[in-house]
């Protein structure tokens, strides 16, 4: 699964920009000028068509289905009360990794990802040891009456693979064969291996730089490889971590862990290859079985075909897009716990189920939640920001019939919460038009085109500086995804080219985190909580501070400036930034460059004039309400936010550094428009 955005290269190199600035300085000579700076960094929104998760599901012949653990009547009687125990086995490729990489994977990534699912899921306890079945030559298997084990026709394969990993001999059952007529059935060789004790799932992990790793910047992929026979639960799987895509930097580490969790879940149950095996709460199949005890094969999908009790097709006859109302067909997961949870989540009691992804082709479509409906849910097909594993995903795990979920492990999903049927069952165009008609904010969508000067906003939870991901595409979008009749500042002929940057979200535009890039190399992210995202001091024009205690605050008024007695420079992007804050004396206080600015009412403009790094930084911040950020803190201390009151005289109580230049005054000049024009090319 690839999660790193790879987008348009920059048009100007950093050296060119500096050269331009120097030439302008010479030109300007003693006249002080305003410089607009953007330092050859472009804001790149995450997610791209090739950063989709491509879960290449195991084909029916790749999976060994029939591992005998215990008789069905014994298994079914057991309750779902055993915390899932996952045993990990490394392929030799993992031991060949560089030490730092090995430690990262062995001590952080895998333990965190695996233990999350171990805490989140419970299974019927596997009392016996797990011995995996051997692969039969030509996949030809006999079932022998009164014998739970499968027999191969003529011979077993020399090696049994689980994905890219060869299953060790001591994990395998003995090789059982019959002749071509199904006679003379017997065990060959040295008998069964010792097997795997105290485990409910065996996970083979490799770290090979495979062809799939090189395609589409994949980070990791996983799938199951064997299912036990009585309830069809997957009991073995493999994951490959792509060594060249693994980074040890902190913001990327969290994404990596979430990606590995996501991939593991494909192996545990969320996969096109497993939908047809789901069972109800009594352990009965939701999809009818054929004479071999399996659901019918869907040749097209190369998967077993599920019934309508698992996934239903629903037609939306009046889906609103630019050309009018059209017919749209969606696939919905309609198992009972999922239905219950999505209805609660959206507050829509007529919602048929949870919509599945319909774009992205094999590997993305059907095997993920629909991005438009579930944006940052981690089981959507592409990573954009702040991935969470919601109650809906855990409910799906319960609906497999193989697990009970510990709902306390679910993370809150804000996207779409309580927005009702009009959000969950209608197009984003209809939602936006309805909001616009009522002169309300388009939340959670947006319609501000990303352009110069780049004007950032804050994400809803204030955890990051964010942008509306509405961009101009190089091609007109398919009719079904043209979500606008009108966009401010955009001409009618251009409208078909405009849409959100995330294709899987049906090109619906929304507020999103992003990465600053220079020459296509990620410089820093926009999430406030990571220290790594701090701009370099000489570029920190708005005196931002990123770290675990920071939140995003909107800038008020106009662009920020930096002044000396001889120069004024303005920056090419503004709009919001990350700052620490303090809840004190009944008020929210925003901290800028270690100085405190109290907020007296929401919307109050805090003027900032502070000396730092030899420049006077001039700008302003907008106060959110005290309750939004301080309610919890104050309640915990048995106090509360004071009532809003008018601004006490600004300038007297607020920090305000002087810039004493004697008779020399900074002067704005015509150079402004020239530089503005040059800088415009820097951003996408
Ligand atoms: C790998 O992790 C396991 C369990 O977390 C630990 O016991 C083992 O020492 C680690 N191996 C190395 C080489 O660090
Ligand atoms: C859910 O929707 C109903 C109307 O459909 C509304 O009355 C109720 O307030 C909503 N609940 C929440 C929590 O938004
Ligand atoms: C912030 O200011 C306080 C006093 O106001 C000072 O003690 C502290 O060292 C300062 N911290 C930084 C990082 O400048
Ligand atoms: C909180 O404050 C109220 C009144 O100010 C007081 O009656 C109450 O005992 C306090 N509770 C705690 C837990 O301090
Ligand atoms: Zn996936």
UniProtKB/TrEMBL annotation:
Gene3D superfamilies: 3.10.170.20, Leishmanolysin , domain 2 (3.90.132.10), Leishmanolysin domain 3 (2.10.55.10). One of its GO terms (molecular function) is metal ion binding. InterPro entries: Peptidase_M8. It is an enzyme of class 3 (hydrolase). Keywords: Cell cycle, Cell division, Cytoplasm, Hydrolase, Membrane, Metal-binding, Metalloprotease, Mitosis, Protease, Transmembrane, Transmembrane helix, Zinc. Its main location: cytoplasm. Binds 1 zinc ion per subunit. This is Leishmanolysin-like peptidase.
